Amino acid sequence: MNRILIVTAAAAERDAVVAGREPAIGMIEGIEVHRCLVPAGMIDVIAGGVGVAAASVAACCALRRGYDLVISAGIAGGFPAAEPCSVAVAHAVVHADLGAETVNGFNSMAELGWGPVRFELDDRLVRDLAHRTSGTLGSILTVSTVSGSQGRADELRAAHPDAVAEAMEGVGVYRAAERMAVPFAELRTISNRVGPRNTEDWQIAEALTALTTAFDAVLAEPLIINTLKVS
Length: 231
Description:
The chain has helices at 11-18, 52-63, 123-133, 150-159, 170-179, 204-218; strands at residues 3-8, 24-28, 31-38, 41-47, 69-78, 87-95, 99-102, 105-108, 118-120, 136-142, 163-167, 184-193. By secondary structure, it is of the alpha/beta class. A 5-stranded mixed beta barrel has the order 5-11-10-6-12, surrounded by 5 helices. It has a two-stranded antiparallel ribbon with strand order 7-8.
């Protein structure tokens, strides 16, 4: 039986993943975990907190228990390729704002020679997830400050033309999975457009419902993950 860890930022996202099930609630390293048996295997779902650091620490703590796959999940801002309330599946995760501001603009950590910021994911796994959820494949950007203007959204699209969503935790969970040699995926549902923060247009409740539907599809049958490796 496959053991799958699903890491969200907020409790509402965790609850959306397990909605309609009857999870057993326990603790892992001081983190509340909701455990369910599903056709895909045994899932543990945790709300690790907002941002790269919180997500990475929570994932590292949980991964000590041993898992076959870890998925970063939740709602996110969407770029034009991903419609509101649709599913976005990462074929790569990108730490999009890690670097330095210079007189010539932003330079990523990779451009500065300090290490990679883009991490490609297993093609077979992500295509399976996209097929099950009718999701849009693309890169999902991890940022520490979410976009609040059209100008910033345009900058990100120019730097990352394949971006489908912007969130705050994916790379943190990926790095934890990489350290523990556990396959990784990221799946998001879209609550709003990346750009100006017109909160009256956000569809958070609808995106959470879409997250439930997406994981119903993902977990309806076993995932083929035993031969996968993180890159």
